[in-house]
Amino acid sequence: MIVYFTFDPRPDLKEGLLQDFPTIEFIFHNNIDHTVLKEAEVVVTYGEDIEAQQIWLAEKLKWIMVASAGIEKMPQKEIAERGIVVSNVRGIHKVPMAESVLAHILSYKRELAWIYEQEQKAEWNRKSKATELHGSTALILGPGAIGSEIGRLLQAFGVHTIGCNRSGNKADYMDDMISFSALQKTLPSADIVISVLPSTPDTQYLLKSEHFEAMKGSTLFLNFGRGDLVSTDVLIHALNAGEIAHAVLDVYEEEPLPADHPFWQMNTVTVSPHVSSHSSRYLERSLEIFKPNLKKWLEGDTELINKMDIIRGY
């Protein structure tokens, strides 16, 4: 059986795979070789390099392991038509992403950017306008693995957490839960609004102008999920109109963000280049999910960890 990685992991990680599964033929590339793809039963990919026609070319392909949480850039229709099993690495992003979110919130609250600016100018200026995180309320859109970890860290700082998802069902480390239908009426109570939602039919452009109009003028908004949660025009209007105070963005409608994009010049926006999940342990954690799944696969068990509904997107 051929397991085809469309990226090239670190040597130590490859060696671990070869030792643990000596009967498997692993092939590692930094691109897609159609000759190999045609013979592979399992493909491991970041999810952005497989096109629709390649799904039909991959005659023996039965399982795609996506080393990412999102699958919105994959040819979902063709994969579903072929009946190919899809799994992802949901859950491995929670530590680096939660730390990134918390770092940005604390940086904003404690005015770290201002402090660094004074340092560069060698200016002893104590007129900081820092505020406290303690006692605030955070509304977290998408309280799954990542959102719950964010909630856990925020609660340690004395923050009241409100989770928001499609169902409103209970989630870990959320003091309260609401459904999407109750979002607009809950937003006025939030000091911080954080989204880690994936891109699905239910979440695309979920936030509209009326949602930002409902927020406090002092609200800190952070989008670390997907860029199609809110249109760029709606967000720029909300910032320029003072409907919210600041936006920290790690994802965008268009990526990479063009050099002439307005966000770069706006002092009410912090631009992060989609790096919140980056970690030296990213692939290590991905393989900790892949290896047990590969063992199950070899035993004929297709009920894999993080098995996805390719059409629903999660």
TrEMBL record:
Q: Which UniProt keywords apply?
A: NAD, Oxidoreductase
Q: Per the record's keyword annotation, is GTP-binding included, yes or no?
A: no
- Molecular function via GO: NAD binding; oxidoreductase activity, acting on the CH-OH group of donors, NAD or NADP as acceptor
All copies of the D-isomer specific 2-hydroxyacid dehydrogenase catalytic domain together span: 25-302
Q: What region holds the D-isomer specific 2-hydroxyacid dehydrogenase NAD-binding domain?
A: 102-276
A Pfam cross-reference name: 2-Hacid_dh_C
| CDD domains documented for this protein | 2-Hacid_dh_1
Claim: DNA-binding is one of the keywords in the record: no
| Homology family | Belongs to the D-isomer specific 2-hydroxyacid dehydrogenase family.
Q: Which PANTHER family match?
A: 2-HACID_DH_C DOMAIN-CONTAINING PROTEIN, D-ISOMER SPECIFIC 2-HYDROXYACID DEHYDROGENASE NAD-BINDING DOMAIN-CONTAINING PROTEIN
Report the protein name in the record. Answer: 3-phosphoglycerate dehydrogenase
Species of provenance:
Viridibacillus arvi
